[in-house]
Design goal:
- The complex is a heterodimer.
- Chain A is built from 7 helices and no strands.
- The radius of gyration of chain A is 19 Å and the shape is elongated.
- By secondary structure, chain A is mostly helical.
- Chain B has one domain: P-loop containing nucleotide triphosphate hydrolases (Rossmann fold), CATH 3.40.50.
- Chain B is an alpha/beta fold.
- In chain B, the strands form 2 sheets. Chain B has a 6-stranded mixed β-sheet, sandwiched between helices. A 4-stranded antiparallel β-sheet of chain B has the order 2-1-4-5, with helices on one face.
- The chains are: A mainly alpha, B alpha/beta.
């Protein structure tokens, strides 16, 4: 078969690469923000805040490239689904990056105070969220709907973590109200991690549409 | 849902060459149905089956069933004049007769024996109005049709069909001789016309099929590979060959 639309194909590969780069950055941000929290490392947290500008810049590049391809290439079928999915994935990744920045900022605030308790569940939850983002992007690159669907069970796990962390911290605050200023940010952080898991699930839903042409959003899974 | 044209196990041969293979298709009333596919895939041949235009080509043999308005149109004994009145065709190059604008529009009516001047006048006004030409041309109905722009000529050819009160308009690449703006205006006209007529269009312009058709069929090597709602065909086709063609990756 003759390779046709070589230029267009290169541009699609470029879109793929941009999203992967962006994904790599936000995965690092999730990990570093929680690592900074765990080690009370304000310097590490600061690098997460700094990285966000680059993430934002790539998001603009992704949008720009997608719009250009829509306007100039009249993409159809699988290409059309890839490009529109690319735009949505870019926007989900940008939101994930923002949530990681917010976690990093809480880590900076908490860095000069002793930790409420050694963190166990939050790092585990962060690891899960990071894994979900990674898997969602992997399924995007491989156009693998089955892999994307694995995220539904991961999302339930993330929700369980959030509930577990919430209950534990409420218990601590009940015992000693003076812990509230240090406990509340942790509740917010677990809520952010859960939002990150939701964004990863959104990406997975878009991947199923991209791979199979089926809309599964807002449908019982 | 009301099918005005249905084909079943339709095969067509040009001598020994099979140009249509087992085509089964339904054309819904008051919809625009587009046929797309690479050159030589059989889409124009299929279009010409619908008003038996292929009969003009020597050595053509057609088997299977084609019904228009529920009536079988293949086989002997079919009144071709009345079939072609019911199912008219617009071609790639506008082909007005070298007559006045007026005479072009009433040509079909005269063939069918209409002599009443009032009836003819009314047909001219009504048909030209339907293709949005009447306001511009009402004072020069006796000018030669060949003096019109290509777009106006194509509109006139459509008006000529409308004058004999057809049910189906077949259009074979109706915009390929027109510039982009004229193309857009003819497309708008088609969207207007589908309220009263059924349109089947053959086009090489995939964006055109995507823009104006309700249903779309992809043909390849004489087969109707895939047929369905246009939105689905262009966003999530089921057949790999359709996907390859509409994404431009056809080897």
């Amino acid at each position: 078969m003759i390779e046709q639309r070589e230029h267009f194909q290169k541009e699609l590969t470029k879109l793929n690469d941009l999203i992967l780069r962006m994904g790599g950055m936000v995965e690092k941000s999730i990990f570093d923000s929680v690592e900074a929290l765990r080690k009370s490392d304000a310097g590490l947290a600061q690098t997460v805040v700094m990285l966000d500008d680059k993430v934002d810049k790539i998001e603009l590049e992704v949008d720009d490239l997608c719009l250009e391809l829509l306007a100039t290439q009249q993409p159809m079928a699988g290409d059309l689904r890839f490009i529109t999915t690319g735009m949505r994935v870019g926007s989900d990744l940008e939101r994930i990056g923002d949530l990681a920045v917010d976690i990093a900022q809480r880590a900076i605030e908490l860095a000069d105070q002793p930790l409420l308790k050694p963190l166990v569940d939050i790092p585990k939850m962060a690891e899960l969220a990071e894994k979900m983002v990674h898997k969602a992007l992997d399924s995007f690159v491989k156009r693998d709907a089955a892999m994307a669907r694995e995220l539904w069970t991961d999302e339930e796990k993330a929700d369980n973590y959030r509930d577990l962390i919430y209950d534990e911290l409420v218990e601590i605050m009940n015992q000693d109200t003076k812990t509230t200023p240090r406990a509340l940010p942790l509740i917010i952080i677990s809520r952010h991690l859960e939002r990150i898991a939701d964004h990863a699930t959104n990406i997975a839903e878009d991947v199923v549409y991209m791979a199979e042409g089926k809309v599964i959003k807002h449908a019982p899974k | 849902m009301n099918n005005i044209i249905t084909t079943d196990r339709l095969d067509l041969y040009y001598g020994a060459f099979q140009a249509l293979i087992n085509v089964g298709l339904n054309v819904e009333q008051n919809k625009i149905t587009a046929l797309i596919g690479p050159s030589g895939c059989g889409k124009s041949t299929l279009l010409r089956v619908f008003n038996r235009m292929n009969d003009l080509i020597e050595g053509v043999r057609t088997t299977g069933s084609v019904k228009v308005g529920g009536e079988e149109i293949l086989g002997p004994g079919v009144d071709l004049v009345s079939l072609r009145k019911k199912v008219g065709m617009v071609f790639q190059r506008p082909n007005p007769f070298p007559l006045t604008i007026y005479e072009n529009v009433v040509y079909g009516l005269r063939i069918h024996g209409e002599k009443d001047r009032k009836v003819l006048d009314q047909a001219v006004e009504k048909s030209l109005s339907s293709v949005l030409l009447f306001a511009d041309l009402k004072d020069k109905l006796s000018s030669n049709a060949l003096s019109l722009s290509l777009e106006q000529q194509q509109r006139l050819c459509i008006a000529r069909l409308l004058a004999v009160l057809p049910e189906v308009l077949l259009m074979d690449e109706p915009c390929s001789a027109l510039d982009p703006l004229a193309t857009m205006r003819i497309e708008e006209l088609m969207l207007e016309l589908k309220k009263r007529y059924t349109i089947v269009i053959v086009t090489h312009n995939m964006q055109q099929a995507a823009r104006i058709s309700d249903e779309c069929g992809f043909m390849l090597l004489g087969e109707l590979v895939e047929f369905g709602p246009t939105k689905r065909i262009f966003t999530a086709p089921k057949d790999k060959r359709t996907e390859d063609y509409i994404t431009g990756r056809f080897g």
